[in-house]
Amino acid sequence: MTTGTMRLGDLAATEAVGAKLASGLRAGDVITLKGPLGAGKTSIARGLLAALGLAGEAPSPSFAIVQPYDLPEVRLPVMHVDLYRLDEAAELAELGLDDALYDSALVVEWPDRAGTGAWPDALRLTLAIEPDGARRLTWEAPAAWERRWP
């Protein structure tokens, strides 16, 4: 497991992180995004989806919980997931995310709602808002991500 941090000065830098993630993303990958409301979780996901070819801006999946993106709108199928509205981790099974990993990648906001131990091989990204408004990105990259991130 490798760890690190970087400073993201603005929205463009935050979306650029998503674009970098897209370059090494594979089916079966999980990226988790933690941080307070407004920290930039959805901005990273939007940058990733744009780099995969999505035309237009991706909506936040807050109300849908799972927003799928499939071929041909993106080069690799992605499930953008927002678990904020989950009441308990047991509800996760109803979303069918494990089956999606056969041919898709998952980008999961609010992963702590899935309970401890969910997606042990995920690339874990945490965003914090700095006093000057910039973002601090901290990551934990498992062995599967070592040559792909950062």
From TrEMBL:
GO terms for biological process: tRNA threonylcarbamoyladenosine modification. It comes from the Bacteria. It is found in: Cytoplasm. The keyword Cell inner membrane does not apply. Gene3D superfamilies: P-loop containing nucleotide triphosphate hydrolases (3.40.50.300). The keyword Cytoplasm applies. GO terms for molecular function: ATP binding; metal ion binding. Keywords: ATP-binding, Cytoplasm, Magnesium, Metal-binding, Nucleotide-binding, tRNA processing. GO terms for cellular component: cytoplasm. NCBIfam families: T6A_YjeE (TIGR00150). Belongs to the TsaE family. This is tRNA threonylcarbamoyladenosine biosynthesis protein TsaE. The gene is tsaE.
